[in-house]
Amino acid sequence: MLLVFALRRPLILHSLLVFFVTAYFTTIIGVIVVEEKMIEYPVSFLDHYFDSSLLFEYFLFPIVNIYFYQMTYESQWIGVIVKATLLSAILTLIEYLFEVFTDLIEYHTWTWVLSFIGMFLFLLSMRGLMGMIRNFSR
Fold first, then answer.
1. 41 φ/ψ sector (left φ>0, alpha ψ -120 to 50, else beta)
2. Whole-angstrom Cα distance, residue 16 to residue 18?
3. How far apart, in whole angstroms, are the C-alpha atoms of residue 77 and residue 84?
């Protein structure tokens, strides 16, 4: 349902691009992190076929990134940084709570700090990339 609401009319092409580019890169990063045994997902969707978290990499984070892009579409860089910090903190808190209170995630050499920094930098990178694409397409 979140994806349907995220695809608002004026920004639909940008939103789809954000969704697919985010899913592409998070899949690569997720596979590397899991194969390096930094993090493990003992219970996951299609766990017989994939070791990484498909729901996070293909749906949750790309959809969050669409909302982030739409929220910061006309923001100045300080607003972009503040919103990226808040979203990264919320996602990191949720991931940390899942790690502590459920068997869905197990940190080995991974920490919540790495999750926060990674998501923060990824959100800013995608926003910068989309800003460049928007400027070149004018």
1. beta
2. 5
3. 10
Asked if residues 72 and 4 have their Cβ atoms less than 8 Å apart, the reply is no
- Cα atoms found within 13 Å of the Cα of residue 111, Cβ hemisphere only: 3
* Vertex 59: Cα angle to 68 and 131 (nearest 5): 30
- pLDDT for 36-68, tens place per residue? 988 887 766 666 666 667 788 888 899 999 999
Q: What is the pTM of this model?
A: 0.86
Give the C-alpha separation, 131 to 5, whole Å.
22
Question: Is 109 strand, coil or helix?
Answer: coil
3-state SS, residue 37: coil
